[in-house]
Amino acid sequence: MHASGVMTWTDEELVARSRTGDMESFNQLILRWERPIYALAYRVIGQEEDARDVAQETFLRAFRALPGFKGQAKFSSWIYRIALNLCRDWIRRKKRTPVSQLPEDVDLSELAAEHGPSESVEDLVARRELSAVVEEAMTLLPEEQRTAVILKEYHGMTFQEIADLQGCPLSTVKTRLYQGLSVLRKHLREKTPSVMEHAVRVREH
Amino acid sequence: MKNVPDGLNRSPYCGDPGALVSYLYNDGTPEELAAIATHVQTCEACTTELASLGDTRERLSAWSPPQTELGFTLSASDALPVSATGPAPAVAAADLPWWRQSSPVWMQAVAATMVFAAGMAVGTSGRGAGPVSPVSTAGAPQPALAQPAALKEEIVSRRELTDLEERLRAELARLSPAPAAQPVQTAVRSTDDEALMTRFRALVSESEERQRSELALRTAQVLRDIEIQRKVDVATLQQDIGKIQGVTGAELRQQRELYNQLINRAGLQGR
Questions:
Q1: Alpha-carbon distance A160 to A149, whole Å?
Q2: Bridge-partner residues for A168, per DSSP?
Q3: Closest CA to A146 of A175, A178, A180
Q4: Which value does ipTM take for this structure?
């Protein structure tokens, strides 16, 4: 199979080929979705290594459940559902509110260089501090609100898709989003407003 | 927002969280969004609220997960995800023999404990229930008890148990410092727990059966030793009785002779 051909196929086509035993097609699906799934897991559970494990496990579960996947939903919705279930299991196991851990031994000047010459170390520090504040604020939300905000804000899902994933009415999703955003707004205003103003200003440039 | 004095606050969308987030995320039917937009244009409170929520959304975009190498892949043979940057497993977990396949740590610990306890029980009974030496009051040389053939088999079995215990411990030690392999192990667990539990139960049953056999063997040995001890004691007793009887007979003879001598002397003096 030619790699460039694989790249142009839709998820549904790749799923169909994977179900016939074409591993390259399934690995192509992994390549497409591993980053969003990892990001989702990280934002929900807040632990880098565990998020990586959850992402791995998600694709393994999906692969093993592939014979039972009849295309009744989009592959992305299906894989998100698996990932969210695993995140939920992880949270239950840990019995704690997920708290993200920022690496402390990071060379900020190197990171700034990675983001191009326009971002100074000062800007990078401000952005990272804002990121930490957001992470902290997210931990204040109940799991359902946090998941709704993450799926909408960072994964661009529609209200209906979120409602399907969370198994609740569409109006509940909207309420969760509004309440979640209200809590986040309050916390973000209280915490280091100067840093946030700076970070917002940096992003606007 | 309901107190906006322009009359448009009577709009069903005014201050409605659902309507606000629909407009905020531009997620709704065109008709609904148009109606909300019409209201927002004339409602200062809703406009302010939306601007505030929009500012919050902008701040949320600063949160990004740490960059990490992913590169998950699956292979047809093992169906296990491995990192492109990490070491690939040499053998597919599904192809491994059951005792090398991963299992939950608690299950491994329980299995190791059970096997260790069984080994200890066999070892303790082997030391405590050794051949009973018949105690002879006569100080005669003891009859040597023949070592039963089954006892040799029991020693081999004990070694097997010890080996198994060591293997389990080695597996535990090998698995615990490898967190990167954890998800793979977790995946294997779900499908192999039942098989492992079956093996575990078989192992426990085998251990119990072995202990029962060991108990029967030891009981038979004790009965044999008691029988030998009884025979030795009976023989010793008979010997002692014989000695006593011999001593008693000699004394009787002496007394009889003494009595005869007294009679004879008395007869001589009477004459």
A1: 14
A2: none
A3: A180
A4: 0.77
Contact B56 A184 (CB under 8 A): yes
What tokens were used for A166? 């969370």
B53 with B149, same domain: the answer is no
Do B186 and B254 share a domain, yes or no? yes
Residues 6+ away with beta carbon under 8 Å from A118? A205
Sign for the CA dihedral angle at B14, B15, B18, B23 comes to positive
pLDDT at B202 over 70: yes
Q: Read off the pLDDT of residues A186-197 as tens digits, 9 standing for 90 and up.
A: 999 888 665 555
Which residue, A191, A74, A128, A95, is CA-closest to B65? Answer: A128
- For residue A110, count CB atoms less than 10 angstroms from its CB and return exposed for 0-12, middle for 13-18, buried for 19 or more: exposed
Name which of A40, A77, A48 is nearest A153 in CA terms: A40
- CATH level 2 (architecture), domain A1-101: Orthogonal Bundle (1.10)
Task: Among B25, B58, B68, select the one facing A52 at the smallest CB separation.
Answer: B68
Question: Is residue B85 a part of any domain in this protein?
Answer: no
Q: Percentage of residues in chain B with pLDDT exceeding 90?
A: 15
Q: Does B48 touch chain A (CB under 8 A)?
A: no
Q: Which residues of B touch A134 (CB under 8 A)?
A: 59-60, 62-63
Residue whose pair of structure tokens reads 């209280």 in the numeric block: A190
Q: For residue range A130-174, what is the model confidence (pLDDT) as tens digits?
A: 888 999 999 999 999 999 999 999 999 999 999 999 999 999 999
- Quote the radius of gyration of chain A (alpha carbons, Å): 19
Q: Give the gap in angstroms from C-alpha A72 to the nearest C-alpha of chain B.
A: 23
| Out of B22, B74, B184, closest to residue A63 by CB | B74
Q: Which of A63, A181, A200 sits opposite B53 (nearest CB)?
A: A181
Supply the range of the domain harboring residue B16: 8-59
| Chain-centroid distance, C-alpha B126 | 23
